Automatic annotation (TrEMBL):
<dbReference type="GO" id="GO:0009507">
    <property type="term" value="C:chloroplast"/>
</dbReference>
<keyword id="KW-0808">Transferase</keyword>
<dbReference type="Pfam" id="PF06574">
    <property type="entry name" value="FAD_syn"/>
</dbReference>
<protein>
    <recommendedName>
        <fullName>FAD synthetase domain-containing protein</fullName>
    </recommendedName>
</protein>
<keyword id="KW-0067">ATP-binding</keyword>
<keyword id="KW-0274">FAD</keyword>
<keyword id="KW-0548">Nucleotidyltransferase</keyword>
<dbReference type="GO" id="GO:0006747">
    <property type="term" value="P:FAD biosynthetic process"/>
</dbReference>
<dbReference type="InterPro" id="IPR015864">
    <property type="entry name" value="FAD_synthase"/>
</dbReference>
<dbReference type="GO" id="GO:0009231">
    <property type="term" value="P:riboflavin biosynthetic process"/>
</dbReference>
<keyword id="KW-0547">Nucleotide-binding</keyword>
<dbReference type="GO" id="GO:0005524">
    <property type="term" value="F:ATP binding"/>
</dbReference>
<keyword id="KW-0288">FMN</keyword>
<feature type="domain" description="FAD synthetase">
    <location>
        <begin position="107"/>
        <end position="171"/>
    </location>
</feature>
<keyword id="KW-0285">Flavoprotein</keyword>
<dbReference type="GO" id="GO:0003919">
    <property type="term" value="F:FMN adenylyltransferase activity"/>
</dbReference>
Amino acid sequence: MSFSLCKSQRDNDCELPSEGLASVAGGIVALGKFDALHIGHRELAIQASKVGAPSLLSFVGMAEILGWEPRAPIVAKCDRSRVLSSWAPYCGNLVPEEVQIEFSCVRHFTPRQFVEKLSKELGVIGVVAGENYRFGYKAAGDASELVRLCEEHGMRAYIISSVMDNNQDYRSMNSNDLKDRGQVSSTRVRQALAVGDMKYVSELLGRHHRLILMLKDKEERSKTSGGWRVSAPKSSLLNLPPKDGFYENCSLLLGNKNPVTCRVFMDTMHIHLETDEADPLDFETQQELHLLGIEFGDSRPDRD
């Protein structure tokens, strides 16, 4: 995990950086929001990799522009490259690139203007999108219009069926959402985290959920009868945690060290880690801040 990536702030310039343009030119871009990087998003990347170098293209700054309530990301910003690298075996050993465009720069684009940007400015040769994808000002364009406009601009558009959620217990969890037809979605991941069903979260993500903390060297540590206990305020979390409670079968990751089995307890204000092994935070460097990963096994919290 890269500390610099976690600290970096996005550029507010409307133009993509040159390296961003170079990474997508001549390739295939998958279109979506890509909040959770779940198995539905992975399927878009897989389909893109079948016809070219795959990239994920999404917008940033939508919440600020549209007045949405701020919320923690499902995947920490500094952990996204690791997740995308894990998709390489599914994508012909290609690691999907990720390119983000400031939403403020394209929010008033018509569907045609958006496709023109993909063709003329980004130089992509094709796009992949889900059957429910909407684009353009006020989501005026749908998948069929995307296909038509791409053909006009000499690009191919590949529309794929949604990856469906096979967990019957949760099929109706978004019954009030007209866009929800039982497909895997970032909303479902958030709701599964909210009830602490980590097995279900793993099924939706195609991997265990990894929580990232930014710890100070002097975070509270105490020795227990069998090992160590580490406590940190929830303000140190860089992404969305599951429901408060006690979780077993977790793994603690620090730098290049081997994972350490741990137990996790979260209350309203703090997260506590317990391990039966030697001090897990025996830091080898003198930097003030350290990134710590916690990977949750397939379990539910033992107590509310």
